[in-house]
Amino acid sequence: MLTVEDLPNKLLTLAHELLPGARKIGLLVNPTNPIQLRFRGSLETAAATLGDELIVNEVRSRDDLHPAFQRFARDGAKIVVLPQDAMFLNERKRIALFAIAERLPTIFGFHENVDDGGLMSYGTDLRENWHRVATFIDKILKGTKPGDLPMEFPTKLQLVINLATAQALGLAIPPTVLARADEVIE
Questions:
Q1: DSSP letters of 73-119?
Q2: Whole-model pTM?
């Protein structure tokens, strides 16, 4: 996730386009994921630059999710960012229900979260990443030494929006954001 240039600023920009004037941004973090800890630092820097207040809630297990969303609502978060994480992906249906119950729009790192009720995702495409992995495995099985393969980072990001979730939250997605979406779920 951190290999994508300026992703934290892009996520915050999307949050502001969706909810102009929203300055309290929630961040859900799984502290057992070292990548998320680095992402958190980058997002904190981006938020400070933009004058946003970042409200961080850490969750270590699925049982921590509902209380975290209740805290976001109580603390006045206007939107919640959820970086790429296996727990957030596995618990995507529950997370979507908690977010809607607390009337909190969400921006995820994985498309799949939006398929199951999240509002929006902006990040790499898991399916494309797995396709790239398969290509590398094929080359290795055909005799290429792993050390001879180039290191690749994701270069294409997808913006996916769930209009049914937007409607459930009473949000109108700005036309400028809709126009940039790679996929809109109705």
A1: HHTT-SEEEE-S-HHHHHTHHHHHHHHHHTT--EEESSHHHHHTT-S
A2: 0.84
